[in-house]
Amino acid sequence: MFCPNCGKEISDNSVYCNKCGAKINNDEITPIMNDDIEDPTIISNSGKVKKIIIGLIVIVVICCAGFGGYKYVQAKEFNNLVKTANQKLNAGNYDEAIQLYNKALTYRSDSNVQKELTEAQKYKQYQSIYNQGLKLMSNKKYSEAIQKFSSINQSVVQIYNNAQSKISQCKKNVINDDIQAADNAIENGDYDNANKYINDILKIDANSSDAKRLKAKIVQAQGKSKAEGNIKEQQQAINTSIIIKYSIDERGYIMATNYPNGSSIQLKVGQEINLIGNVSSKSSQRVLFDGTVMKSVSPTAIKTTTVGGGDINIIPNGYDWDKAYKYHIIVTS
């Protein structure tokens, strides 16, 4: 039982409380606690406390679960954005990749994503330069296109490799155009311009077999042109051959000549001298000439063969030198 004064538990047979000394009247004692007796007020308050505690625990659990779920959703969305952005970057869709990387960074700051964003922006810049090169190439501005492609940095590997391939193609196109232009110039006898085109080829390919072939073609064409020129000049000389007209009367005198006796006549190599003589039936003639610079091509025609000088003698009646006419022939190149 308990002391009614101080509440200390004491023996059921105690007369005085061994703590406060109060006298114990057994008739007035009411057990404060008994395992078999329940206080409804205490039970009611205890139940409320338990419910409050449980409620608080539930709220905390729900909040933690909600926050964790929110973080999980954010992390998942971030990873999906980065994954898709990487795919777009690898596919060459740089604008979409940049947009996705920027969106991913709104979820959280990440140095790797920032690095990928910078990479995508760099790829976009060089892709623009590459596209400009393609446009110049389509307009056959190969030299300008080569300059554009050459400005692309090796760090953007895919675009750089594509640019190098286009540079090789442009060089082939430039060489092909120069070959065609050089061939046309050679055909037209414009050897100076032909050599310029050949030099342009050699700037691109120092060991170009086409350049060597074109140089040999120029040498051959120049030789042929010179030979043709000589032939043409000779033909012109032949076409402008001179004619010496004269007549020999029955007495053996040379008359009516268009070149006086002793005339000097200047000719070119290959030019002809045609002797047109009207000889009386009572007379005859003999023609002698210097064979070192001339030769006979017909009974009435003499052709110059070599640079130099020599005489043509028209002698009446075979040996009548007193009546002979002499012409001094000067042959030039």
Automatic annotation (TrEMBL):
<feature type="transmembrane region" description="Helical">
    <location>
        <begin position="52"/>
        <end position="73"/>
    </location>
</feature>
<protein>
    <submittedName>
        <fullName>Outer membrane protein assembly factor BamD</fullName>
    </submittedName>
</protein>
<feature type="domain" description="Zinc-ribbon">
    <location>
        <begin position="2"/>
        <end position="24"/>
    </location>
</feature>
<keyword id="KW-0812">Transmembrane</keyword>
<dbReference type="InterPro" id="IPR011990">
    <property type="entry name" value="TPR-like_helical_dom_sf"/>
</dbReference>
<keyword id="KW-0472">Membrane</keyword>
<dbReference type="InterPro" id="IPR026870">
    <property type="entry name" value="Zinc_ribbon_dom"/>
</dbReference>
<keyword id="KW-1133">Transmembrane helix</keyword>
<feature type="repeat" description="TPR">
    <location>
        <begin position="78"/>
        <end position="111"/>
    </location>
</feature>
<dbReference type="InterPro" id="IPR019734">
    <property type="entry name" value="TPR_rpt"/>
</dbReference>
<dbReference type="Pfam" id="PF13240">
    <property type="entry name" value="Zn_Ribbon_1"/>
</dbReference>
<keyword id="KW-0802">TPR repeat</keyword>
